[in-house]
Amino acid sequence: MGFWSNRYIAVAIGGGIAAYKTLELLRLLREAGARVVVIATAAALHFVTPLTLQALSGHLVRSDLFTPNESDGMDHIRLAQEAELLIVAPATADLMARMAGGHGDDLLTTALLARQGPVLLAPAMNSAMWSHPATQRNVAQLQADGIHWVGPEYGALACGDQGQGRMAAAEQILEAGRRLLSPQSWRGRHLLITAGPTQEELDPVRYLSNRSSGRMGWAICHAALRAGAHVTLVHGPVAMPVPWGAEAVAVQSAQQMYEAVLQIWERQEQHALPLSAAIFTAAVADFRPARRQTRKIKKEESGDQTLTRLTLAQNPDILATIAARANRLTQENRPAPIVVGFAAETQTGAESQAALRALGQKKLAHKGCDLLLVNNVWAEGCAFGSPTNQVTLLHRSGHEETWPLLSKEVVGERLLDYLTTLFV
Ligand code: PMT
Fold first, then answer.
1. Residue 68: which pLDDT band, with cuts at 50, 70 and 90?
2. How many alpha carbons lie under 13 Å from residue 423 in its C-beta half-sphere?
3. Contact residues for 88 (Cβ-Cβ < 8 A; gap 6+)
4. Per-residue pLDDT reduced to its tens digit, 249-265
5. What is the pLDDT of residue 302?
6. Which of 74, 184, 309, 413 is the most buried (most CB within 10 A)?
7. Which superfamily does CATH assign the domain made up of 190-420 to?
8. Residues contacting 188, CB < 8 A, separation 6+
9. Is CATH 3.40.50.1950 the classification given to domain 8-181?
10. Contact between residue 202 and residue 297 where contact means Cβ atoms under 8 Å apart
11. Residue range 236-261: average pLDDT?
């Protein structure tokens, strides 16, 4: 069962051109298994038709306070009470003003007044309207009233201007809703994640790298953001957008990743939010070309048909460095983050589980970290870039757990749950 399966979600639509983007939100919610009810203001129905909304939500659209669907006429109370989440998208300047003023002159505003559960606003308007002092006063009032927000974003607006006022994308509104409904077991905690491959340059056009897609690190990052963590994501070159809300540092080489992580480590010692854990999923190149050629290496320059000999130099071990620093803090009786490594192994045959564990134990001791997750990248469903993974978790205490093949998303959630049991 997915996160949205069978959840009852009310989507309220204000009268703005961005209402067309809400249609995609309805589609995504239904596709994810949510039960959706739509409340549209009279103005919203100038932009999207009741038939479209009905087709996408699977229910009659609620709009008029005085033609209720419920036999007792209490639609506004039912809608307010029964939905797990009420999303207002687009939230127009006028709708926000009416909400801030406590108005109740149509079905939506009465439902909002009667609402006690979470309300998520996705504002959309012209940037001048957004920055107008009256709108900003209403924003402050609604924030003080406990309303949650997603957007507005900066970008091209329907009126042709560029500025802040674009409604957040449907996927982002969905993600914001998911974070609101998720248990906040990491709220107030700071997590560092490394992810993706590194690229070690040979010359201006070539590099040595590996097949890591970054998906494992991304999955942990998404899970942590949903659980309320502050996430710093240090990543190599990957093809995915940075998860919304993460503090990202993009690097290319292992040396750059090392320097970025050390900087974060040093900053966290003064940070208001010190690190609770650091998870190293990145596939860091152990070696780099000893000399990067400043110009493209020409095959004619090798003189004959043999390849130019490649001399490699060792890269710093980021995980081992951070583990050593954390261990020093522990020895000094100071709070230290939990340090977690991943180990990509290549095993075949019947002995593979036992051999994997043995390799993992050796690596755990060698790196000096608290926890190591071993995965066999040759096993079915565990390859680089795959959406699933199968890991064996090894704790330095000797505790071991072998998890089944799971989506990387679920591996991330399980790992974070496991870590919360270790927090003192
Ligand atoms: O990115 P995906 O396509 O989703 O694939 C996920 C993954 C297979 C990359 C991931 O699950 C994984 O196994 N990551 C670790 C890959 C790796 O480099 O393993 P390793 O055994 O070489 O290194 C062990 C640990 O030391 C890792 O935590 C690594 O980040 C760290 N390390 C390694 C070398 C180095 N110089 N510095 C490091 O910090």
1. low
2. 17
3. 12, 13, 14, 95, 108, 112, 119, 120, 121, 122
4. 999 999 999 999 999 99
5. 62
6. 413
7. CoaB-like (3.40.50.10300)
8. 228, 273
9. yes
10. yes
11. 97
Q: What is the per-residue pLDDT for 298?
A: 82
Cα-trace Rg, the chain: 26
CA-closest residue to ligand 1 atom 20: 343
pLDDT tens across 378-424, in order? 888 888 999 999 999 999 999 999 999 999 999 999 999 999 999 97
333 CB contacts (<8 Å, ≥6 apart)? none
> How many CB atoms lie under 10 A from the CB of residue 134?
12
CB-based contacts of 49: which residues, under 8 Å, 6+ apart?
A: none
Amino acid at position 175, single letter = E
Retrieve residue 95's tokens: 């709708």
Active site annotation includes 159: yes
CA 323/CA 268 separation, integer angstroms: 15
Rounded percentage of the chain residues whose pLDDT exceeds 90: 80
Q: Which residue has the tokens 């926890």?
A: 371
Residue 28 · residue 34 · CB < 8 Å: no
Contact 277, 370 (CB under 8 A): no
Annotated domain spans of the chain: 8-181, 190-420
- Token match 């607006």: residue? 157
Residue 230 CA, ligand 1 centroid: distance in Å: 22
Pocket perturbation via mutation, ligand 1, pick of 258, 315, 342 by most ligand atoms within 8 A of CB: 342
Torsions phi, psi of 291, nearest 5?
-130, 125
Atom of ligand 1 nearest to the CA of 345: 21
From the number of C-beta atoms within 10 Å of its C-beta (0-12, 13-18, 19+), residue 387 rates as exposed
Please answer whether residues 62 and 34 qualify as being in contact, where contact means their C-beta atoms are separated by less than 8 angstroms.
no
Cα 229 vs. chain centroid, distance in angstroms?
A: 10
Q: Residue 309 corresponds to which tokens in the numbers above?
A: 């000999």
Question: Atom 5 in ligand 1: which residue has the minimum CA distance?
Answer: 384
Q: How confident is the model at residue 76 (pLDDT cuts 50, 70, 90)?
A: low
Distance 199 CA to ligand 1 centre (A): 14
Both tokens assigned to 121 = 């606003």
Structure tokens at 198: 């590194």
To the question of pTM greater than 0.90 for the whole model, the response is yes
